[in-house]
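Notes from hallway chat w/ T.B., transcribed later so I don't forget. T.B. wanted the structure written out for a chain they're using in a teaching module, and asked if we could keep both sequence and structure tokens in one place. Agreed to drop them here.
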Amino acid sequence: MRDTRADVRGGRLRMPRSRGAASGFLLILLGIWGALIPFVGPLFDFGFSSDQAWIWTTTRGWLEVLPGVVTVVGGFLLLTSRNRATAMLGGWLTVLAGVWFVVGRDLAGPLGIGEAETPAGETAAKLAWLSLSYFYGLGALIVFLGAVALGRVSVRSARDIAYAERPVTAYEAQPVASDEVTEIQPAVEPEPRRHRSWSGIFGRRHTHVH
């Protein structure tokens, strides 16, 4: 009987796609927010010292666009991958991007990236919301979701084992051509049937002696 279950070799790396889907989707949204808010925020009086929208600067590129894009890439890997190693790579990318959102603004000067912009607001509450929405709060949330995703994809549950040992499709179950040579035995002709004469049926033939 042919075994129709999937080859379990490498099963430790297989997992359901849904394992990191929710975290991946949220991380993609946060990455898009982090990469676009410096260009869109000034349109709604929600920006930093540079109040011009859709203006590219080196500081924006390093501190906001780069980690935002990395977060989107990591979230996409978490959302679409059925491979545990690939999903964990996506999780680590998002964690690193979140950390950079948090510390990048303070390291911009020492690293020679440029002078970090200051939040443009009249009240302390607005200044706090700007810093949290652009950098510190955004980065902390990305790190949290990335860590949660890493925890989920790194654990091999009974569901993962069942997924790795799932029945294969009809296409996968088709026999694979083999290189082995099958010896063909010559056909054996049936032995001819002997016919008995009518005299043999009714008894031994009598010989008349003259």
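Follow-up for T.B.: The CA atoms of residues 174 and 180 lie 17 Å apart. Might be a good example for the class.
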